[in-house]
Structure formats: structure tokens, C-alpha cells
Amino acid sequence: MTKSKKHSDNERVPLTFDSIGAEEKEAAIKVLETGFYTMGKEVGAFEELFAAFTGAQHCVMVNSGSSANLLLVASYLHGLNREGLLSPGDEVLVPALLWPTTLWPIVQLGLKPVLVDVSPETMSIDINDARSKLSAKTKAIFLIHVLGIPANMEAM
Ligand SMILES: Cc1ncc(COP(=O)(O)O)c(C=O)c1O
């Protein structure tokens, strides 16, 4: 893996930089050569390793963050051991700075998104605005750690 670059205080920090090095390119070519692009051996191995890394019982690799969001919300309504934690009509607080695919699974599955302002420090949900949006129907908060900046988990 390519090492992240160090920056001095007055140097501009780029929003993003290429983090794909020779090792990743070699691994990608190896996978392409197997002919299995989605559900091959490497994906299975990754799922197991990632589950162990996070301490989860299972891990399911998906094609995108958008699909992950849809599965996440659906699992709270319909499946896995989280079934029934959410019911249609429940309110879910979402940050005003979001991906369309943070919002749409909530709408698609019959829940009600409630937009919450974001804090300029974290770019994630503002705790005071979140408090003001709570209602008897609030059942979940969809947190996003924008650009890797951690949301205020303690306050949350
Ligand atoms: C919370 C969240 N939702 C949705 C997305 C969109 O992911 P994708 O473009 O892979 O569908 C991202 C991407 O980083 C994300 O972090």
C-alpha cells in the first residue's frame, strides 16, 4: 500500500490523492485473470478478514457505498438479527450534507428522513439541531463521517 504523504502546516492538503500503488495493481490484475470479478475467492477471503477485523459475525462485500446503505437500512426492517428494529413510518435523522443514496433507501423502504444541520467542525450531524428534531417517531440516526472526519460519537 502507498504511504500517505506528510504535509507541513502551511502546505495545502489535497482533497484526495492516488493511493493505489504497485501492490494493489498487481492484486487487481491477479483477480481479473481469474475471470471472477464479483464473487470470487478473493472476495470471500476479504469478507472473512474484514469480519474478523471489525469483530462482526459476518461481512458481505457489495459493489458500492450506495448498495451498502440500501442493505443496511433493509436489514433493520426485514432481515438478519436486526429485524423489526425499524417499521415503516419511523423517522430517521440524516445529516443535511449527504449522498443521495443515504436518503433514498430510507424513502424507498417507507421510512421518513428528517434532515439535520451539520456542524462546520465535523461536517456531520449537529448535535443541538439533532436534539431539536427528535420526536416520538425518531428511531434511528444515520451518521456519516464525511471525508473520513469523525462525527462526534461521544455526543451522539
Ligand atoms: C455514506 C455514503 N453513502 C453513499 C456513498 C456513495 O457510494 P458509491 O458512490 O460507492 O455508491 C458514500 C461514498 O463514500 C458514502 O460514504
Descriptive overview:
With 156 residues, this protein is mostly helical. The protein folds into two domains: 21-61, no CATH class; 66-149, Type I PLP-dependent aspartate aminotransferase-like (Major domain) (Aspartate Aminotransferase, domain 2), CATH 3.40.640.10. It has helices spanning 22-34, 41-54, 65-78, 100-108, 127-133; strands at residues 91-95, 112-116, 138-141. Strands 2-1-3 form a three-stranded parallel sheet, sandwiched between helices. The longest helix has 14 residues, at 41-54. The chain is globular. It starts with 21 loop residues before the first helix and ends in a 15-residue tail after the last strand. Pyridoxal-5'-phosphate binds at residues 64-66, 69, 99, 101-102, 144.
Note poorly predicted spans.
none
What is the count of helical runs? 5
Number of strands: 3
Strand content: 5-15%
Mean pLDDT: 89
User: What topology, given as strand order, has the largest sheet?
Assistant: 2-1-3
Shape: globular
Counted up, domains total 2
User: Helical proportion?
Assistant: 25-40%
Bound molecules: pyridoxal-5'-phosphate
Major sheet size, sense and barrel closure: 3 strands, parallel
- Work out the radius of gyration: 19 Å
CATH architecture of the largest domain: 3-Layer(aba) Sandwich
CATH superfamily of the largest domain: Type I PLP-dependent aspartate aminotransferase-like (Major domain)
Straight-line N-to-C gap: 33 Å
Structural class: mainly alpha
Order of helices and strands: HHHEHEHE
CATH uppermost class of the largest domain: Alpha Beta
| CATH fold title of the largest domain | Aspartate Aminotransferase, domain 2
